[in-house]
Write a structure and sequence with these properties.
Helix content: 25-40%
Bound molecules: NADP nicotinamide-adenine-dinucleotide phosphate
Distance between the termini: 13 Å
Keywords: Membrane, Transmembrane, Transmembrane helix
Protein name: NADPH:quinone reductase
Order of helices and strands: EEEHHEEEEHHEHEHEEHEHEHEHE
GO molecular function, one term: oxidoreductase activity
CATH architecture of the largest domain: Alpha-Beta Complex
Radius of gyration: 20 Å
CATH class of the largest domain: Alpha Beta
Shape: globular
Low-confidence stretches: none
CATH superfamily of the largest domain: Medium-chain alcohol dehydrogenases, catalytic domain
CATH topology of the largest domain: Quinone Oxidoreductase, Chain A, domain 1
Pfam families: ADH_N, ADH_zinc_N_2
Structural class: alpha/beta
Strand content: 25-35%
Amino acid sequence: MRAVTCRRYGPPEILRIEDLPRPVPGARDLLVRVVATTVTSGDARIRGFRCPALFWLPLRLAIGLWRPRRPVTGMEFAGMVEAVGDAVTRFRPGDRVFGLASVGAHAEWLTVAEESAVAPAPAGLSDIEAAALPFGGLSALIFLRDIARIVPGERMLVIGAAGAVGACAVQLGRHLGAEVAAVCSAANIDLVRSLGATVVQDRAVWDPGREEGRYDVILDTAGAGDPARFRRLLAPRGRHVLLSFGAAGIAWMLLTALWPGRRVVCGFAGGGAADLRFLRDLAEAGRLLPVIDRVLPLEAVVQAHRHVDAGRKRGALVLTLDPVPG
Ligand SMILES: NC(=O)c1ccc[n+]([C@@H]2O[C@H](COP(=O)([O-])OP(=O)(O)OC[C@H]3O[C@@H](n4cnc5c(N)ncnc54)[C@H](OP(=O)(O)O)[C@@H]3O)[C@@H](O)[C@H]2O)c1
């Protein structure tokens, strides 16, 4: 099968398309024929091994000290179940699915555990659209619902609102009952407004100093503001949520947890099949729209990584795979 591989950490040009054996599903696995996948900010980070110094060693130990231990790249996928292991009960060959794997989605075939983040794909969405939802959707859901613990009526600000996570956060924030404001570049203002943000500001001219005490939750997907500066924007029990953070972010989180009041919170997104089914239901009801920057063939993976590295992606960048003969 064709698969994108990353056999050392480095720039986009190190990626290769290789011909590899098709993976074999275990008893509790699905074999998925991947129709669409994406290049996420997470894929680009792992390829380039861009991470704060604090996480360098733990992350290298987890994914490969000298080179990626599992070379096939890619997390998000949509496609069709080709075969299932003997112990699988919830899926059958022919089911359309979408999901988020840890690696291996940039390939014609992928095996995923039945119990992992895989669910029936949303009816009415194409594979390209379905593949655009899991990474941004699960990240936004976990950060808003579980980490920020947003409640209806709260005022929320999304910084970096046009990216994969930001575009889902604007929509999920509305769904969770928040009043959503957003900051993005001028070219993305109309898009972000169409997703449900009531006030959208151009990040080139945005003046945070004029919004003191305004927000219950600030979701900073862009690593745009240092906590000291953004603290004044928070309401008395407001939470400043950092998606990208290092030692300083963790220090802020620990310090602000010591007494009641404004807090900095950081964490890592996870999410499983139940969360994915929640996103699917929203997508089927038209309340979570996929935002797609561009669609490229798998062979353009280097170009795709260069675009993600530039940091200006709108929603998801989708890669498509030709149907496998037979
Ligand atoms: N902790 C976790 O578990 C977790 C999970 C998922 C993602 N993340 C992190 O979250 C971040 C966002 O991920 P993503 O997938 O949404 O990224 P993405 O799709 O590449 O989008 C990034 C967005 O950031 C905006 N941006 C770039 N520079 C900015 C700046 N200086 N100020 C404000 N906005 C800026 C860009 O929009 P404009 O051009 O409109 O400004 C772009 O749309 C990444 O750093 C990723 O690693 C963390």
